[in-house]
Design goal:
The structure is a homodimer. By secondary structure, chain A is of the alpha/beta class. Helix content of chain A is about 35%, strand content about 25%. In chain A, the strands form 3 sheets. A 6-stranded parallel β-sheet of chain A has the order 3-2-1-4-5-6, sandwiched between helices. A 6-stranded mixed β-sheet of chain A has the order 8-10-9-7-11-12. In chain A, strands 13, 14, 15, 16 and 17 form a 5-stranded antiparallel β-sheet that branches. Chains A and B meet through α2, α3, α7, β6 and α8 of A and α2, α3, α7, β6 and α8 of B.
C-alpha cells in the first residue's frame, strides 16, 4: 500500500527456506505480515519462493500461499529461481553440505546455525569469500539482539578488550528460578522442560556447549581471529549447588552462566562457565530466558545489548535483518545501500504527530489536601465522573511531610490509563476544590512492558 | 603491522575534520591509536588530511602529525583531497551551510550534530540523496551506543511499536543523584556543573530539548516518517520535586527523563518528559550519565541498548563506525562490504587461545571444614604461600547449614585475582588437609567493570 513505485519496480529478493519448523514458519509469517514495511526499508520486496519439508502435508499453509514446497532441500540449493538460501535445518552434517552447495551455486546464505558455523565456520566463510556471496548469521547468536551487527559494524572504531554474555536462555531461566525460588538444579530443569524453556535432551544448553558455539563466533568478530570453538573452555551449570547461589547473594553477587572472551597480552581467553557477577550490574539483573551481551571497547567503554535470545519470531527478526542487508546490497546506488532514515526516501509516510492532549498514559498525581472528612470522596468522585480509575494510592500524614501545616496531608495516586486531555479537565475541577491546597503535581507513568 | 597488503594497497579514505574540540581530537586520537585494527576491518585506511580550528596554535598536535590545519572550515568542504567531512562544529547555522556545501561538492558527511539534523534534517537528507552521498549520524544519538544502526539495520524485520530512551546523560545524572542522595534539583545541578556533567548553560539538557532532538531522529527511523522535532512535546526536569522521587520509590517506581515515541492507530506520539518507570526494569536501573534505549518490535519483542551517551571517545567511536561504513561501501566487491567475521579475510590474525590454567580471574571458594581452632589459619596460610589474597569472607555456623554434622562449618571466600593454575595447586594442598571435609567448590568471579 505504502510501497513506492520505485521500490516495487525493483526485482524481488527470492528466498528458499531450508526447513519449515518453528523458525522457518516465523520467517514466513513475519515476512508476510510486515512485507510493506520491510519493502520500504529494503527498497525491494523479499519473497519466499521455495521451502523444504520432509512432511509435505505439514507444509500446506506455505503451499497454499504459493510457495513451492519440496521434500528435498537439495532441490532448493540448485534451483536458479532462488537468490538466497535460509538454512534452518540445524546440525552440522546435512546442513554443512547444503550450505556449501548453495555457496558453490552462487547463492547467498543466511543461517541461524551456531553449531555449524562454530565447527565449520572457517571452511564456510572461505568458500563464501571465494564465491563472492554473503554468509550472514545474526540469528546464530543471541536470537533477535543485533549483536553481530553491533560488533561487526557498530563498534569498528574500537579495540575490543572483552565481552561477556548471557547467551543461553535455558540456563539463565534455570539460574533465575534457582535463585528466586531457592530450588535445586534438577527440580528447576524439570519445570523448564515442561514450560518449553529446555529441550527433552538439554545437554547442549546445560553443559554450556550452545553458549560456547555463540561465544566462539563473537570472539572471532571481536578480535579478528578465526572461529576457535574447539579451543574453548566449557563448563555448564549441572554441578551448581543452590547453596552457592545463596552465599553469593549474601556477598553481593549473582551467579550467571557467562560466555567470556578477553584479550590479554599473551592471547585470547575463551571460556563458558558459571560466574559470580556483582548484583548491581545490569547483566546480573537479566532474568528468565532473556539474553544480554556486555562489550568493552577502548573508545566506547561499556555497552550492553539485551533481548530475547530464542523463539520463533525473535530469531526470524534476525534472519530477516540479514535478508534486508542482502537485499539492500543489490540496490542500484551502493552509497544509498542503507537509507539515512532507514526507509527508502521515496517510501516515507506522512503520519500525524498527536498533540499531547491525545496521548494515553497512566499518571502519578500528588495532591496537598486538607486533612478532613470527605476530601478523598470528593476527589475520587471527580475522577470517577471522567472515567479515571485509581491503580494505587499512598497517603502521607501531615507529620510525614516537612514544612507544612499540621492539618494538611499528601495524597499520592497512580491512575490507570487515560487520555491526557480528559485527565487535565478533571484536574482543573480538582484544583478548584477548596480542600486542595497547592498545585496538583502530575507525572506520566509507563510500564514499558 | 597486521594490515594486509591487499587492504593497504587500496586508497585511503581521506577525512576533513570541521572543528577540533574534544570530540574532534578524540576522533583523531582513536583513528591514530587503532589505525591497524580499523584498517583490517574497513579494508582500507582512514586518514585525517585536513582539520579546521580558529585558533591555529591550539591545533599544533594535529599539525605536527601532518594534518593540514586551516582556520576556515569552508576551505575543507571545497578541497578536492577530502572524501568525507566530519562536522563537529555544532549549532544550526554555520554547520548547516558547511554540510550543504560539502554535499553539493560530492562529499560524504558524518556528523554528531543532533540539533542540526532535528531542525534541518529533511533538507539535508534530500540534498544528500540527490547528490548520491551519505549523511551518517550515529554519534548524534546516544553517543557510542550503535542505536541508529540497530534501528536502521538490525531491526528491519519489525514493525516498531514504540521506543523509550534515557538519551540525555546530564539529566539522568541529576535524577540519579536526587534519588540516591535525597537532594533537590538546584543542589545537584551545581554538583553536575562542577563535575562537568552539565554545561554552564544547561538549558538544552535540563529542559529536554537535547533529548527531543535525538528522539525526533529515532522516531523518523523507527516509523519511516520525516524528522518532526517541531511537533515534539517537551518537558524538562527543572520542576521536579525530590519529594515525588521519594513517593514514586515507595510505590515501586523510579523517575527518569524519557524520550518516548509510539505508534498508535491515529498517529505517532513524540514526547520528552519525566516519567515513572517500574523499579525492576533495566531502564530504571540505568544510573549516572549513562544512556539506554528500549525498542519494542512486533517480531523481536523488547530489546535494550546501553552505553555512554556522551564524551569524547564514546562519540568518536560512533563517528568512526560511520566512517568505516563509508570506507567499506567503496570496497571493490559490494557483496563483501561487511566481512563475515568483521575483519577482512586477508587480515585475520592467528592469536593463541589461552589454556584455562593461564586465565587470571577472581574466585569464589566454599570449603566445608571442621569447626575447630586453627583451621582458618591453616587454609589462609596455604593461600598466602601461593600469593593468593582474600577479598571477602563469610562463615556460616553449622546450624545454618542443612543436613550437616554439628561440628562442621562452611567457609566462603572471595579471592583477589590469581592465575587459575596457581589457585588449583593451592586448592590441591587445601583439599588434602584433614580438616577439609568435602570437595572444595570453586567458581570464577568477574567484576565486569
Amino acid at each position: 500500500m505504502h510501497s513506492s513505485s520505485e521500490a516495487s519496480s525493483r526485482s524481488p529478493l527470492r528466498l528458499g527456506l531450508l526447513g519449515i519448523g518453528n523458525v522457518g514458519q516465523s520467517v514466513f509469517d513475519v515476512l508476510t505480515r510486515n512485507q510493506d514495511e520491510i519493502s520500504r526499508r529494503a527498497g525491494r520486496s523479499i519473497e519466499v519462493v521455495m521451502a523444504s519439508r520432509r512432511n509435505l502435508a505439514a507444509a500446506k499453509p506455505l503451499a497454499d500461499a504459493g510457495v513451492r514446497v519440496v521434500a528435498d532441500p537439495a532441490d532448493i540449493v540448485r534451483d536458479p529461481s532462488v537468490d538466497v538460501v535460509v538454512e534452518l535445518i540445524g546440525g552440522t552434517t546435512v546442513a554443512r553440505d547444503l550450505v556449501l552447495q548453495a555457496i558453490a551455486n552462487g547463492k547467498h546464505v543466511v543461517t541461524a546455525n551456531k553449531a555449524l558455523l562454530a565447527e565449520h565456520g572457517t571452511e564456510i566463510f572461505d568458500a563464501a569469500h571465494k564465491a563472492g556471496v554473503v554468509v550472514a548469521f545474526e540469528a546464530a547468536v543471541a536470537g533477535g539482539i543485533p549483536i553481530i551487527k553491533a560488533l561487526r559494524e557498530g563498534l569498528t572504531a574500537n579495540r575490543i578488550q572483552w565481552l561477556a554474555g548471557i547467551i543461553n536462555g535455558t540456563t539463565n531461566f534455570i539460574l533465575s528460578e534457582m535463585r528466586s525460588k531457592g530450588l535445586d538444579f534438577a527440580t528447576v530443569l524439570k519445570t523448564a522442560q515442561s514450560l518449553g524453556y529446555a529441550e527433552a535432551d538439554p545437554t547442549f544448553d546445560i553443559e554450556g556447549v550452545d553458549a560456547a558455539h555463540k561465544l566462539a563466533l563473537m570472539s572471532a568478530i571481536a578480535f579478528g581471529v578465526p572461529v576457535q570453538f574447539d579451543k574453548a573452555h566449557i563448563e555448564g551449570i549441572t554441578q551448581l549447588d543452590a547453596q552457592d547461589i545463596r552465599y553469593a547473594e549474601q556477598l553481593g553477587y549473582r551467579i550467571k552462566l557467562l560466555g567470556i572472551t578477553k584479550r590479554v597480552p599473551t592471547g585470547i581467553e575463551l571460556r563458558v562457565h558459571p560466574c559470580l557477577v556483582p548484583s548491581e550490574r545490569l547483566l546480573a539483573n537479566v532474568e528468565g530466558a532473556m539474553n544480554a551481551v556486555v562489550v568493552q571497547g577502548d573508545a566506547v567503554g561499556t555497552t550492553l545489548y539485551y533481548g530475547k535470545g530464542a523463539g520463533g519470531e525473535p530469531t526470524a527478526s534476525a534472519v530477516i535483518a540479514d535478508l534486508v542487508d542482502v537485499a539492500r546490497v543489490g540496490n542500484s546506488s551502493a552509497l544509498e545501500r542503507v537509507p539515512a532514515l532507514a526507509f527508502q526516501p521515496d517510501a516515507m509516510v506522512p503520519t500525524p504527530v498527536l498533540p499531547i492532549s491525545d496521548v494515553v498514559s497512566a499518571y502519578y498525581l500528588r495532591l496537598r489536601v486538607s486533612d478532613e472528612a470527605g476530601v478523598l470522596a470528593n476527589l475520587t468522585g471527580v475522577l470517577a465522573k471522567s472515567g479515571i480509575s485509581i491503580d494505587a494510592m499512598l497517603q502521607r500524614e501531615a507529620h510525614d511531610v516537612s514544612g507544612q501545616e499540621g492539618n494538611q496531608t499528601d495524597l499520592v495516586m497512580l491512575t490507570h490509563e487515560v487520555r491526557e486531555g480528559t485527565l487535565d479537565e478533571a484536574l482543573a475541577h480538582i484544583q478548584a476544590l477548596p480542600t486542595v491546597l497547592a498545585p496538583v503535581v502530575r507525572l506520566r507513568k509507563e510500564e514499558l512492558a
